[in-house]
């Protein structure tokens, strides 16, 4: 009769047990990624830059600036354990278009396992020409999770110049930051820049800066 509880069956228990297992595995996977980041930060604080991987809200904010319809590879700098990579896939970027440049060999092994169709390059993003020596097609976007403020201003600007050289003109260089100012200096700039709203759901809150070469 309406309002009465249905009898509890073994199928219900199996379903509930399965749901608990999925939640447990998801929690364990998240904790495992956080542990990997924490270890990497202790080992190389200036290279890793963050104690935690990017949250889903921040990853989605970064991916939203990538147009999947623009041809060419989508290059990710410092993908870590892959939260932004996953957001790019959800955005509609085919996995075989992804080029992931990661300095940490442990993260590289993990990325190859998680994204077997992507091209994972173990290398230094600040030596971009060397890392992309075998990539001739201009990129549709470059998405960066590098801790730029650990590098001198001249090195940051050199990275941006090299990134523009590897992209279709007008395509975005996308960078997140926890700071309140642009990671790329805006004085006397020869590029366009705009910033996202603050992503409060990330820990800590962050913004996304997007840099483009003018089309003219």
Characterise this structure.
With 216 residues, the chain is an alpha/beta fold. It folds into two domains: 11-47; 54-212, Vaccinia Virus protein VP39 (Rossmann fold, 3-Layer(aba) Sandwich), CATH 3.40.50. Helices cover 38% and strands 15% of the residues. The chain has seven helices and seven strands. It has helices at 10-43, 45-48, 56-63, 83-91, 105-114, 128-131, 153-165; strands at residues 74-77, 98-102, 119-122, 141-144, 173-177, 192-195, 207-212. Strand 4 (141-144), helix 7 (153-165) and strand 5 form a beta-alpha-beta unit. Helix 3 crosses helix 4 (83-91). The chain starts with 9 loop residues before the first helix and ends with a strand. The model is unreliable at 8-12, 17-29 and 45-51 (pLDDT under 50).
């Amino acid at each position: 009769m309406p309002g009465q509880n249905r009898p509890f069956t073994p199928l219900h228990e199996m379903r509930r047990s399965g749901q608990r297992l999925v939640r447990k595995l998801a929690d364990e996977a998240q904790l495992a990624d956080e542990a990997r980041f924490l270890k990497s930060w202790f080992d190389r604080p200036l290279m890793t830059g963050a104690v935690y991987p990017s949250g889903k809200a921040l990853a989605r904010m970064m991916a939203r600036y990538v147009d999947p319809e623009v041809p060419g590879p989508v290059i990710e700098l410092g993908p870590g354990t892959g939260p932004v990579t996953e957001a790019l896939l959800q955005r509609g970027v085919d996995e075989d278009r992804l080029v992931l440049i990661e300095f940490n060999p442990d993260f590289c092994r993990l990325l190859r396992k998680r994204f077997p169709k992507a091209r994972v390059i173990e290398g230094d993003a600040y030596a971009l020409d060397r890392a992309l020596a075998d990539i001739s097609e201009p990129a549709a976007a470059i998405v960066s999770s590098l801790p730029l403020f650990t590098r001198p201003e001249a090195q940051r600007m050199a990275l941006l110049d090299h990134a523009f050289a590897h992209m279709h003109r007008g395509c975005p260089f996308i960078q997140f930051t926890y700071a309140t100012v642009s990671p790329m200096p805006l004085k006397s700039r020869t590029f366009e820049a705009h910033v996202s709203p603050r992503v409060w759901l990330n820990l800590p809150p962050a913004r996304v800066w997007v840099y483009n070469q003018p089309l003219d």
